């Protein structure tokens, strides 16, 4: 855990602590009513599954210990401890047992032996041919995205199920643009910098909109008087994705291992929990747009 926080950096860790504190207060208040317990359990188990699926240190853990699942279980119990305490305060003992049992089960499933990784994934074929970020992301998280859409549709009669599903899907898509692609994937478009940026922005807008369209329609049908909730959420995500694309190419380097600056990336995610940050990332988007055009001109200026 300490190693992960060290890798995250100071600013990302501080923002993470702030987000966790806000979410914890909200969760504690929400757990006073029984229906909300199911939402909290669903969110927690989904996030824990995603965390386990994305872990890249399982092989290392196998090398240093013969009981990897014990290490994983202890880490997950520590992560879940605040929620377990909240559940105990309200006397939701069965929910505590379900959460602990889920942590135990998922700890016994090493991420590198995930059965889905051995199955040919046809989902990337549905992605636009030139959207390399989406192809890579869907290849890795396609089944999880599909599962979230299906769960959101199945539970759409609950008010917050669809907004929650859209939020989790948006977080996954946000991660598609964390790393730089190789220079060859820039010149293959044969576009000038402004046209290239426009293409990238329209791709993420179109594909995210298509992905969540069934959820939006289901919510509007089930809760027609509150249609604006998912529309506002959709617009915020489009705004943040636009910021993310500009941020990525403002600091672009032809090295697939390079990531966008953690502080600026954290601001994009933080805007969902701290709405005043939306104004800040709007200003930064203008700045990063100019910086992106200048930076990309180094690589694809020949296509002007």
UniProtKB/TrEMBL annotation:
Keywords: Membrane, Transmembrane, Transmembrane helix. Signal peptide: none annotated. It comes from the Bacteria. The keyword Cytoplasm does not apply. The chain crosses the membrane at residues 9-31, 60-84, 90-110, 144-177, 197-219, 226-251, 263-289. This is Etoposide-induced protein 2.4 (EI24). It comes from Reichenbachiella ulvae.
């Amino acid at each position: 855990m300490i190693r992960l926080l060290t890798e995250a950096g100071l600013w990302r860790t501080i923002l993470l602590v702030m987000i966790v504190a806000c979410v914890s207060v909200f969760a504690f208040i929400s757990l006073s009513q029984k229906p909300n317990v199911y939402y909290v359990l669903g969110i927690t188990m989904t996030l824990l599954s995603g965390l386990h699926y994305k872990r890249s240190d399982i092989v290392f853990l196998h090398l240093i210990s013969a009981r990897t699942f014990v290490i994983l279980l202890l880490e997950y119990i520590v992560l879940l401890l605040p929620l377990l305490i909240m559940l105990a305060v309200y006397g939701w003992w069965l929910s505590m047992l379900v959460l602990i049992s889920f942590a135990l089960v998922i700890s016994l499933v090493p991420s590198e032996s995930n059965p889905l990784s051995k199955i040919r994934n046809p989902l990337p074929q549905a992605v636009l041919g030139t959207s390399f970020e989406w192809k890579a992301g869907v290849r890795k998280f396609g089944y999880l995205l599909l599962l979230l859409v299906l769960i959101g549709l199945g539970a759409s009669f609950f008010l917050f199920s669809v907004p929650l599903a859209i939020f989790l899907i948006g977080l996954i898509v946000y991660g598609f643009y964390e790393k730089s692609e190789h220079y060859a994937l820039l010149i293959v478009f044969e576009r000038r910098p402004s046209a290239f940026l426009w293409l990238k922005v329209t791709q993420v807008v179109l594909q995210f909109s298509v992905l969540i369209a069934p959820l939006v329609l289901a919510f509007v049908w089930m809760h027609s008087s509150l249609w604006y909730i998912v529309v506002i959420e959709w617009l915020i995500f489009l705004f943040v994705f636009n910021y993310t694309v500009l941020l990525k190419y403002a600091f672009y380097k032809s090295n697939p291992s390079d990531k966008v600056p953690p502080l600026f990336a954290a601001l994009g995610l933080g805007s969902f929990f701290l709405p005043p940050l939306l104004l800040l990332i709007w200003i930064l988007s203008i700045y990063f747009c100019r910086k992106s055009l200048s930076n990309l001109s180094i690589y694809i200026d020949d296509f002007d």
